[in-house]
Amino acid sequence: MPPALFRLAGIAVLAAGAGTMAVIAGDAPADAAAHHRGHRFQNNYVEFEPKGIGALLKWRIDAERAGLPKPPQQETPRVAADLAFLHANAVAGAAMVPSVTWIGHASTLIQAGGSNVLTDPVFSERASPFGFVAPKRRLPPGLALAELPHIDAVVVSHNHYDHLDAASVKALAAQAGGPPLFIVPLGVKAWLADSGIGHAVELDWWQSARIGAVEIVLTPVQHWSGRSLGDRMETLWGGYAIFAPDFQAFFAGDTAYSKDFADIHARFAARHGAGRGFDVALLPIGAYEPRWFMSSQHVDPAEAVQIHRDLGAERSIGIHWGTFQLTDESLDEPPQALARAALQAGLGDDAFTVMAIGATRRFAPRPP
Ligand code: ZN
Ligand code: ZN
């Protein structure tokens, strides 16, 4: 049954089944309309125009001539997931240990505040509409769909195929015990509905949804959207700030470098507490070469380090690498470049690192 939606004075209340309730706060800034351009959306700090077919051809021909990408020297590390911990923790309620598990690419499982939240779930073999030309995944997901605990919420950053996968969201919507709440940027709810998924809420930048004790806010990042040549930037994109009572996480989705991250830090400063930032930021570090093509849409590891600093994050974890070969850098280059950039920036050894696929990192709950 589709959820009932009531709009009252800028507040929408979504009665989501299984005893959960999502409240969308109409907390948009005065200049909210700046990124709304008719039936398309635009970034805050750059007039973004997706690259055309000419640039795409030039990239592909250059890469072919240069023999790029070179094969990786090292396989992406992968470990067996700690299913016993994840499943016990999933039902621990207020005693839940804040944790992050890397499933692969931008897919992570965040356990916090009594809720299990999945980011950009992609479990399929290939990340494209054109199954036969799309990059094949190099390693299986760190957790198979059937191994997941019951998922309370799924956040989707944008509709690119390596972040929004039809087969994966349909499988999640059919999970035992009822569907998760899908939290998506403006315009993506209709796509979900076309796929038969009605248990969804869509947000504009700075709007939030609540799942149990966890508040999830869509934030601006610099990127774009589109699943074909005909729908570019017609749906919104973003990152998510995830606020549990004892844990604060940021998931950047896909992004270029921009002032948006300093804005996010400023906006949530009071919520973080003096001198603090997010407990962890999940930041993309892969799919960045060649820069002339990628820099307006994907950060490189040095820019990811700058985002970590702009956010004032306590820790960051590099994601969006090692799973699908999407661009010219080798699959194993991003963590090496990240280590160099972190050293150059004078970060502590454990401030910004990567994880093995399947690995779980546990965090100390933040003091009340
Ligand atoms: Zn993207
Ligand atoms: Zn991506």
Could you explain the architecture of this structure?
The chain is an alpha/beta fold. It has a single domain, classed as Metallo-beta-lactamase, Chain A (4-Layer Sandwich). The strands form four sheets. It has a seven-stranded mixed beta sheet with strand order 11-10-9-8-7-6-19, with helices on one face. A seven-stranded mixed beta sheet has the order 12-13-14-15-16-17-18, covered by helices on one side. Helix 7 packs across helix 8. The longest helix is centred in the N-terminal third of the chain and has 14 residues. It is globular, with a radius of gyration of 19 Å. The N terminus is likely disordered. One zinc ion (ZN) binds next to loops.
Strand content: 15-25%
Mean pLDDT: 91
Helix count?
A: 8
Q: In CATH's first tier, which class applies?
A: Alpha Beta
Question: What kind of sheet is the major sheet?
Answer: 7 strands, mixed
Helix content: 10-25%
Spatially, the strands of the biggest sheet line up as 11-10-9-8-7-6-19
